[in-house]
Structure formats: structure tokens, C-alpha cells
What we know:
MAIN-like, AminoTfrase-like_pln_mobile, single chain, Aminotransferase-like plant mobile domain-containing protein, two-stranded antiparallel ribbon, 2 domains
Amino acid sequence: MSRKIKPRNVDRPELHIIKYLSYSDYASRMMTCDHPVPPNRYDERVEEHLRSTGGIKLTWLRDLKERSQLTDENSIQVYVKCHIMLLIGTILFGDKSGASVHWKYLPLLSDFASIRQYSWGSACLAHLYRSLCRASRFDCKEIDGPLTLLLCWAWMRLPYLAPVPREPRSFSLANRWRNWERGDRVYRYHKLAHFWKALDELQEGQFLWVAYSGDRVDPDIIPAKIYMHSLIWSATVPLVSFECIEWHATDRFRRQFGFVQGSLDRAHGEVLTGPKNLNWATATTHSFWVMQWTNRYNHVLTDETMMPQQPLDTYMYWYRSKYGDHLNLSDLAVQ
């Protein structure tokens, strides 16, 4: 007796996800379903499913990626889009759940040619700043966001706190510490108190402010097409990623760009938080921040460059009078 084949549930919203917002060709919108249905541009079931659940399960994306046959252009695009969505949901813009990726990123994949034109770096910084802000609250126990970026930033600038890099000439720069535990087994046993004490004893010269200069990173390691954008690294502008808007306050850490740092003015004081599922495209205030980002070349820092051994009397006097010993981490009790 032949086995009955259970018909595929074509009404499951997850079968209709990729590119359903943009393409009229039904076959190109479907990820795994190929049943004959008249083409339509919009599927209310999918829209309602995504809005109610908030995202797409990462396990489903992984399974679909692994089952892709890569036999034609459409299957290759499905594979690549699954891979990108997994990167977005885990490394770039992951949340504390680690279970799903928000549906708002789907339209970004509708046009392959446009993907490389987005400023993914500034979007990652926006999410990292938002995560750090939330993690600074006294009742916060966890942190999410692009933590690989945070670790790489810290280890590049505080090498005496970093594990021994296994591949110092690797790019991306984070690959320097890939599989670091194989070559630096002692590092994994350092307790939190060890790092608190090391930060309290930090001396001038131990923090590498200009971490990507030629004497720190060989010029041929960072690709020229990436380094050419270093001109706008110091732009004091809002970083925009959908409803996530965070201020890139480069004027408060000028030394990172080789400039003299004086005493600081008051912080911007703008309230940049808002509803997570706000339709930012129609928000009245959103265009203001987008316009500032668009004009970022007009907001780069221009100032007197700092000599390597230039004293910081003005800044240090301001810092000590402002904060004193409040940041003495070694005095904190381990919770």
C-alpha cells in the first residue's frame, strides 16, 4: 500500500516571507512553496503573522538554509538571504532571546544590488549604543546587540586586557582572536575582579586611542575601499536604524580621531527612544534625524591634531573634578 503524502499547508505564513513585500512575481516571493496560486503583491496573512509574532524564528531559517539545493538562481538567492537574515538576527542585531530576527529587515533584502549601499556599520553602532544604555541601568542583568564589535573595540584599544591574538594579520580585525582559547588558556580563568583592578590601574599610554593608525595596523590589512570612508568616522550625527536612533557623540572623545580633547559641554539631552514597532517612515520627527545623517560630511570633526605625548591637563582636571573616585571599580562588591 502506497504511503499517503500529506499535502503541504500552503497557508503557513512563514512559507510566504522573503520578498513578499516587493515583488509581484509569486514564484520569486515564495521560499519553499511552489503551488499554483495567482500572483499577488500583498498577503494579509503574512503581514498579520509578522506583526503579531514580531519576527522569524532563527531555527526555521537555519533549517531552510541547510535544505537549500542551490540548483538554480532562485534557490541560490534563498540561501544567501537566509544566511544574511541569520547574520542580522545573531551577530549584527541580535536580541536577548536569541530565538528570532525582527521582520523589519526583510524589505532590505528585496534588491541585492542595494544591500551593499546601506550603512550597516552605523546601524550596528546604533544598536550597540542602545544596548549599552540599557545595560547601564541598575536593574539590568543582561546585554544584547553586536557584542563581537564591542569586544573587538575593547581589545584593540586595551591590548593588555585582551587574550593573545592568534592571527594578528587577519581581516576582519575580529578574526585576530578567533579560537583565542586554544592559545591563551589562562585568560579564560580571569575573574571579574581582575579586570576591575586592571581598569583602575590604567595608566596614560596603555589605552590606544587611534587604534587603526599605520603604526598599529598594517596599511595593507584594512581594504582600501573600507579605509577610504575613515573621513566620516568622526561625524557627530545621529545613527539611524529604523526606530533605533542613537547619537554618535564624537565631540566627546576627540582623541579617538587624533584631536585634542578639552573639557566637555553638557550632553545633547535629546530623548531618542520610541515605540519598537513604530512606522518610522511616517514619523514626523524621523526625517529630522535622517537629514542630519544625510549631511554627515558637514559634521566631521576638524580641529588641532594632538601630538602623541601631548599633556591632557585641561581634560584631566575637568574629569577629576567631575567624577573624582566614582569610577573606582575595585571598591564595588561582587554580586
